[in-house]
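To whoever picks this up:

The nightly regression suite flagged Putative membrane protein as changed. Nothing in the input moved, so I suspect the structure step. Input below, exactly as stored in the fixture:
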Amino acid sequence: MSTALTAHARAWRPTARELLPLLVAGALVLTAIAYPLSSGSARDVVSWAIVVLGSVLSVAHAGLSRGARTAAGVLALVVAAAVAFESVGLATGFPYGSYDYADVLGPTLLGVPFLVPLAWLMMAWPSWLLGGHLARTTRPTRRRFVRVAWAAAVFAAWDVVLDPQMVQAGYWTWASPSPGLPGIDTVPLTNLAGWLVAGAVLMTVLDVLVTRTAVPDAPRIGNAAPLLVLGWMTLGGALAHAGWLGLPGSAAWGAALAVPVLVVLAVQHRRAGAGTG
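Regenerated output under the current build:
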């Protein structure tokens, strides 16, 4: 018995390739826990640390799981998309609505703070990965469309939790925050619509990019690290909003938007178990 248990433990021991993303994800989660417990300039430092760790995790995981070309492509594509959408949004109000960034976010490119493309990187890659999980039981002819649709929806839903928190921190303000989602009076509905549009475009191109650049025989690693970060930043963020940040509306929306994802994953797991039983 002990020999069998030892062999099983060795089989589950993460390799150095797998350990790096997990360590970065762990550091990010611990840093995120510090956010509601900090204030003032210390909270600004925590915000930067979260975003930097999240963007490093996305690029590192893309490279370790699919090769250096994919990692470089993800970095270039997401940063370019973020600057393009955000600069147009600042100049025209499309597709999010009219808003302004605070000076506290530091240096900018075309009016877009450097922190913002890094935040997109943190959000985009885990959203695309989760979209793939949610679409895996779909018929092959429809799988790419469903994967992109799920990824764009997850990408937008993440911002439903994130945006009220950033407005509360004073990082940006909306010219006309109404009408908004019930319970959220600081962020307009146009922002959610804009994130769905941006997400659909970004995830479509990202899907093509990964398909064309991924190394077929690249050493595969699991998606645990980026999905852990996605789960913590949404559900953990909702908990922080309810318990410490005084944002019950976004907390409720974060929990509610997680339900369809959890239901689909549970159904898939049940079907997989029935298929092997």
